[in-house]
């Protein structure tokens, strides 16, 4: 064999050997990543009432790794192995926290939280007089937003569950991994806040949604012609593609990701925007009463009731009468630095016009229900969990040509007619590294379309924190999966 050829063969063998080693390392690393997390499962229970505690915070101390408990009090959390010696914290406002080393956690027993109240004798008069009324405390908290909210760019990784249902079943369900970029509190969210849908876990089609109202609204807003009415349209004359297009359009304008992050209901982040709900005129549309002082993970926290004021609350949604509400709910504000920890906020029909519309078209007087939990990280408050629920206007009819009893009609009207949309977002990672932020900001498509189908990435979801479904949701999802398509590999 010629010397040159032999040398060439040796080089090929060496190259193949190196390549083989690299492949082995890749496989090993992939396997290591897949199995390098500790799965923590459990249930959080009220010690006195023996009832599950919903929305309890479960997190690793001094990190942003965490989740919340569902309506059954249950949770699941994936924790990287490097945090095995760190502290797992389970906390809920008004209860004593449960703490244990991650490696010592035993999920075979429920976690019982005992009630905790503030020691009022520790509250003393200081040189700088503290606000004493609910209104004064809230105004002080809003004044401190520039100090307590993030003041520089950051990324958050999160899990989105977006579902539509009536009183008895899911109509469709979408679960996604998302990335949110925000340049900070002092910037305009409509210009400097972006959302990208990274991965899709479940995406069921919309074929069971009969939304003639959405179709009519879409045509009236986007086609120059005489205005249509729902009564002018027969369902059989509308193609499925036209219906799906109108559903997507309607969902985006009413309660899509863009509205959650860039709209008025992002109460604190967008409080500087024109006509913000928590802006300069907040006391014209809201009143606040101090209810009590509780404890959250050993810190005193104000519990403040949200109530109506002299003017109605309105959202100014284009093409929809989204006005004439009164606000109700609760604010939880830390005693020491006036940072807002949690918001529970509802908009209830209050004007005669909105009461009539809500009863006739939506079947409920509560048109918007919002919960936002915040987590403190590096002395700033970042959104940790968002829950948003709103009724959805649909036009449905009994899909039968045969005779039906009045009992069936009544059941249909009560349980089938009225729809609601629920969106939940759990954030489990905050990224402050400028290089990573810059790279993702300039490489991601930043597309917040949750309806775009994506292949199911099994390895990705194996290592990603998600919200645990309640037992009821699990059954509804199982029912839905039997009659709708699921995108997967």
Brief overview, please?
The chain is of the alpha+beta class.
What string gives the helices and strands in order? HEEEEEEEHHEEHEHHHHEEEEHEEHEHHH
Strand order of the largest sheet: 10-9-8-17-16-15-14-13-12-11
Quickly count the domains: 3
User: Which percent bin holds the helix content?
Assistant: 25-40%
**Number of E strands:** 17
Radius of gyration (Å): 26 Å
Distance between the termini: 49 Å
Shape: globular
| Low-confidence residue ranges | 1-5, 20-34
What is the beta-strand fraction? 25-35%
Secondary structure tally, helices: 13
How is the main sheet built?
A: 10 strands, antiparallel
The mean pLDDT is 85
Structural class: alpha+beta
**Oligomeric description of these chains:** single chain
Tell me what you see in this structure:
This protein is α+β, with helices and mostly antiparallel strands. It has three domains: 32 residues; 80 residues, Carboxypeptidase-like, regulatory domain (Immunoglobulin-like), CATH 2.60.40.1120; 348 residues, no CATH class. The protein contains 13 helices and 17 strands. The strands form three sheets. It has a ten-stranded antiparallel beta sheet with strand order 10-9-8-17-16-15-14-13-12-11, sandwiched between helices.
């Amino acid at each position: 064999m010629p010397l040159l050829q032999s040398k060439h063969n040796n080089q090929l063998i060496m190259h193949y050997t190196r390549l083989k080693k690299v492949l082995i390392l890749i496989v090993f690393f992939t396997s290591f990543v897949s199995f390098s997390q500790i799965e923590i499962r459990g249930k959080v229970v009220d010690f006195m009432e023996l009832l599950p505690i919903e929305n309890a915070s479960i997190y690793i101390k001094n990190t942003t790794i965490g989740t919340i408990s569902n309506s059954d009090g249950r949770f699941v959390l994936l924790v990287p192995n490097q945090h095995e010696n760190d502290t797992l914290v389970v906390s809920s406002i008004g209860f004593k926290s449960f703490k244990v080393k991650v490696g010592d956690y035993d999920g075979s027993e429920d976690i019982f939280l005992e009630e905790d109240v503030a020691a009022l004798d520790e509250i003393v008069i200081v040189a700088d007089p503290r606000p004493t009324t609910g209104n004064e405390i809230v105004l002080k908290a809003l004044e401190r937003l520039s100090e307590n909210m993030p003041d520089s760019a950051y990324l958050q990784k999160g899990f989105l569950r977006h579902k539509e249902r009536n009183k008895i079943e899911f109509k469709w369900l979408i679960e996604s991994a998302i990335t949110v970029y925000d340049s900070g509190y002092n910037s305009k969210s409509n210009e400097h806040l972006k959302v990208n849908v990274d991965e899709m876990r479940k995406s069921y089609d919309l074929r069971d949604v009969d939304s003639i109202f959405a179709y009519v609204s879409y045509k009236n807003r986007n086609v120059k012609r005489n205005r249509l009415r729902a009564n002018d349209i027969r369902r059989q004359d509308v193609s499925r593609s036209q219906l799906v297009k109108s559903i997507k359009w309607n969902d985006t304008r009413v309660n899509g990701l863009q509205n959650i992050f860039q709209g008025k209901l992002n109460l604190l982040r967008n409080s500087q925007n024109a006509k913000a709900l928590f802006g300069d005129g907040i006391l014209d549309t809201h009143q606040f009463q101090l209810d009590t002082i509780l404890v959250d993970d050993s810190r005193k926290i104000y519990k403040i009731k949200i109530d109506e004021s002299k003017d109605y609350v309105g959202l100014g949604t284009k093409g929809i009468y989204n006005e004439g509400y009164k606000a109700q709910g609760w604010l939880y504000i830390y005693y020491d630095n006036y940072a807002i920890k949690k918001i529970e906020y509802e908009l209830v029909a209050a004007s005669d016009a909105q009461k009539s519309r809500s009863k006739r078209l939506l079947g409920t007087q509560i048109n918007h229900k919002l919960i936002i939990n915040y987590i403190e990280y590096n002395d700033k408050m970042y959104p940790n969990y968002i829950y948003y629920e709103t009724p959805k206007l649909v036009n449905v009819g009994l899909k039968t040509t045969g005779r039906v009893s009045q009992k069936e009609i009544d059941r249909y009207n009560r349980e089938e007619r009225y729809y609601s949309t629920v969106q939940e977002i759990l954030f489990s990672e905050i990224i402050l590294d400028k290089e990573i932020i810059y790279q993702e900001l300039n490489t991601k498509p930043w597309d917040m379309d949750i309806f775009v189908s994506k292949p199911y990435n099994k390895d990705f979801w194996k290592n990603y924190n998600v919200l645990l479904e309640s037992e009821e949701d699990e059954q509804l999802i199982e029912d839905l999966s039997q009659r709708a398509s699921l995108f997967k590999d």
